[in-house]
């Protein structure tokens, strides 16, 4: 079942993100990976900055989360994670499809350039990689990430976003 997450779901969001982010260990640049991958304070800051999380659950267990953030003329998909044991079961696609239906704006997604599984997932779901030049501009415009993360990331677009 898909549902809007509430304040009572914050611990589940935190646990799912940090469980699923184990996939990045040894894949993304070593200087960008730390444990926990997302601290409690970072999660609260994301929520305070307008990231709205949706969750997927079965049998009263939270299995996946994905956030959407309104950024003027675009929407950002943020923090898309599925518990390690439930990966490749369609949960991510269900969450993404639902969040895409919530907006009529172009959607942007940032992810690590070395996370080839994530890039394949978004391409399979209709997104395309933007050029490196456009990526740099989009990350500086719509995200608040350090230069090192801009350097090691990609941006995918649902279309209609130009610089």
Q: What does it look like?
A:
This protein has 163 residues and is an alpha+beta fold. The protein has one domain: Aminopeptidase, CATH 3.40.630.30. Helix content is 34%, strand content 26%. The chain contains 6 helices and 7 strands. The chain has a 7-stranded mixed sheet with strand order 1-2-3-4-5-7-6, sandwiched between helices. Strand 3 and strand 4 form a beta hairpin. The mean pLDDT is 96.
Secondary structure elements and pairings:
Layout: E1 2-4, H1 10-20, H2 40-48, E2 52-58, E3 61-71, E4 74-82, H3 91-101, E5 107-112, H4 116-124, E6 128-129, H5 132-142, H6 147-151, E7 153-157
Parallel strand pairs: 4-5
Antiparallel strand pairs: 1-2, 2-3, 3-4, 5-7, 6-7
Please summarize what this structure is:
It is built from 6 helices and 7 strands, in the order E-H-H-E-E-E-H-E-H-E-H-H-E.
Quaternary form: single chain
Enumerate how many helices there are, as a single number.
Answer: 6
Given the C-alpha coordinates, what overall shape results?
Answer: globular
Count of β-strands: 7
Taking all Cα atoms into account, the compactness measure Rg is 15 Å
CATH topology: Aminopeptidase
For the biggest sheet, the summary is: 7 strands, mixed
Strand order across the largest sheet: 1-2-3-4-5-7-6
Distance between the termini: 37 Å
Average pLDDT, all residues: 96
Fraction of residues in β-strands: 25-35%
Corresponding CATH superfamily = Gcn5-related N-acetyltransferase (GNAT)
> Which spans have pLDDT < 50 for at least 5 consecutive residues?
none
Q: Please give the share of residues in helix.
A: 25-40%
CATH architecture: 3-Layer(aba) Sandwich
**The top level CATH class name:** Alpha Beta
Summarize the helix and strand pattern as letters: EHHEEEHEHEHHE
Question: What structural class do helix, strand and pairing data support?
Answer: alpha+beta
Number of domains: 1
